[in-house]
Amino acid sequence: MHIDPLEKKWIVVSLGMTGLFIGVILITSFIHGINAPSNVETIDSARLHLNKEFAEDNLGVEQQPDGTITVRMVAARYGFFPRDIKVPADTKIKFRWVSFDVLHGVHIPMTNMSTMILPGFVAQVTTAFPKPGRYPVLCNEYCGRGHDHMWSNITVIAKQHWQKTQQDLAVDKSKGDDGDE
Ligand code: CUA
Questions:
Q1: How far apart are CA 64 and CA 62, in angstroms?
Q2: Which residue has the CA at smallest separation from atom 1 of ligand 1?
């Protein structure tokens, strides 16, 4: 088969560019730990209350002993629960979202938080809030007549204050364990 030399040149150039772009995406995603918002983890949305991780008592902010923070929230017509949580600024926070009913979306302005929450799946996004303040949590997928009113708040407090409140909590806990102080 005859291929015109000029055409050959452009085939090589276009393949090279495609390879370059894919390479850049792969390398940056490995370096920055970027992945799709859903880690394709399934969950039974109709039985969230029976699921240990997303049982009502387990929702909200959890700080592990190593300091990493996980937030678990449920999206349901029409709100995100718990309604108002507190997290530290300038800190990586892993959010895990599930839907209780239909497809919702979640968007938090000033952050990279923007994902769909599909019933039956856990949507996981790691984000950080740049500065203290109150951030709205908005639904950005039409989910019914109350969609426009589907939102809640996240209160972001300064990192030092957060550490202080965690230390106070730990002190309270240890006092509680002793029982008599
Ligand atoms: Cu939930 Cu729109």
A1: 6
A2: 104
